[in-house]
Design goal:
Elements: H1 3-7, H2 12-33, H3 42-58, H4 64-96, H5 98-109, H6 115-151, H7 162-193, H8 200-219, H9 222-230
Helix pairs in contact: 2-7, 2-8, 3-7, 4-6, 5-6, 6-7, 7-8
């Protein structure tokens, strides 16, 4: 049986649900990172605070507080990266026992579905988890770069390179946070793919729910309102 023949196991509704999943993942990410000027996302608002953080760091003595914050951020990215690796390993282990999983899944869904179908669904979940791992690892490295640049900011406020290096540290910090947020969104959608195991309709419902949750947190949450209210 060829790959084309095997793809016939998926219905047009499966294809539509999967298309909605990827379209939603890409579009929500683009919208968060490119919001309207009058309606910024929480991530964009936080980027402004990161710039302010670096400006305040210039005159802070000592800068132990700033170093502790960066260390905490790196610990968070390391935690999620290790969690993603464990999740990837678990998913691959399930794929390796596809026949056993197929029997259990068929009993639950009351349908005779080939093992190939379950394998494809699990592989897509693993792809999202792999993307999240790569994003978290890169975020961890960027936070490390930011720490080095922060250490290179002169203690003398009047030094001509002081403000410029602080801006560099802020931009790297923002890039790290952007990569971290992309990793989190990949985790969200990896969990969403799990709904596909129950069929295309649950996948569509889970995708809509995930998009609604992400949209609310970025554009309609109480924390966003507080951040907007505290900006000067």
């Amino acid at each position: 049986m060829t790959w084309i023949d095997r793809l016939s196991f998926f219905s047009p509704l499966d294809v539509a649900a999967l298309g909605l999943l990827f379209a939603g993942w890409l579009l929500i990410g683009w919208r968060i990172e490119h919001p309207r000027a009058k309606h910024p996302s929480t991530s964009q608002i936080m980027a402004g605070f990161r710039h302010e953080w670096m400006r305040q760091m210039i005159t802070r003595e000592p800068r132990i507080f700033d170093a502790q914050i960066v260390a905490s951020l790196r610990q968070g990215t390391a935690f999620f990266a290790s969690t993603s690796v464990i999740a990837i390993g678990g998913t691959l282990a399930v794929i390796g026992n596809a026949e056993r999983v197929t029997g259990i899944a068929n009993d639950l869904t009351l349908m005779e579905t080939p093992a190939f179908v379950w394998e494809v669904k699990l592989v897509i979940m693993a792809l999202f988890l792999t993307n999240s791992f790569l994003k978290f690892v890169w975020a961890n490295r960027l936070f490390g770069y930011a720490a080095v640049v922060m250490a290179a900011v002169p203690n003398d406020v009047t030094h001509p390179a002081c403000a410029g290096r602080a801006d560099q540290a802020a931009e790297i910090n923002i890039a790290a946070a952007r990569s971290f947020n992309r990793g989190l969104r990949s985790v969200y959608f990896a969990l969403t793919v799990a709904a596909w195991l129950a069929g295309p309709i649950p996948l569509i419902a889970a995708t809509v729910f995930t998009l609604a949750v992400i949209w609310r947190r970025e554009f309609a949450s109480r924390s966003r309102t507080i951040l907007l209210g505290t900006q000067l």
